[in-house]
Predict the 3D structure of the following.
Amino acid sequence: MLTVTWTTVRLFLHVLAASVWVGGQITLAGLVPGLRNLSPDAPRAAARRFNLIAWPAFGVLVVTGMWNIAVENPQFGTSYMTTLIVKIIVVAISGITAFVHAQARSPRALAIFGALTGVSAVLAMFLGILLAG
């Protein structure tokens, strides 16, 4: 069996949290139309329950992301650093739009900020894969 290292733990926690944050959003987006058929309040109830695991996962993403940066020690002026800065911006957009989505009440705002959150989360995951090489 291979040896478990801090690198393994760090990357595992980051990928696990990303799976919850991104995968949960995709799953919830797929469930919302069916939930609406059950009850007009069902999507909001499901979203509230999802938030109980999504926000801690986002927190783990931020902490392990900072841990990743500290370990990798990227050099300024490199394409890696440029990609990393873009990823950090996209992660911030994902978190901010998710927060605004959770506060939204109108169907239009829910749709817009939900879509922005999902797209930015998937893009952040893609950029993370790109950084991992």
Q: What stands out?
A: The two ends are 24 Å apart (CA to CA). DSSP finds four helices and no strands in the chain. Residues 6-132 form one domain. The mean pLDDT is 96.
